[in-house]
Amino acid sequence: MSSAAVAPPPPPSAASPTPARSATPSGPQRTPINPFLANDPNAKAKRLARALISDLIVYFPQKREEGLRDGTLKQLFREEIKKSYEEFLDQVGQEFAESTTHFTDALNDILADGQKIFTGPTVG
Q: Is pLDDT above 80 for 21?
């Protein structure tokens, strides 16, 4: 019996190109899912703030219930809010963060369940 050499299948990149990519001289380029949101820093910052604050509720649901019940959200979440705000600053920059109310809005809308408890981006 003789064994015949079999050519390996072509690599995936040799297959037909996917519609979401287009080749350019500098390499492949992805098309954003939603071009409006991809280029809107306000939408990104708002989404980030809301995600950071939503995480607090996921990780500390009883603490939030206690804070809402007793009116002590600011005190109970002081350290967590500080850490979340630092992350927000790192990702959007201090100048941009201070020029918007996205973080404060997220605190009031999500953590404080619609109550206007927080007046600035930081706890104090």
A: no
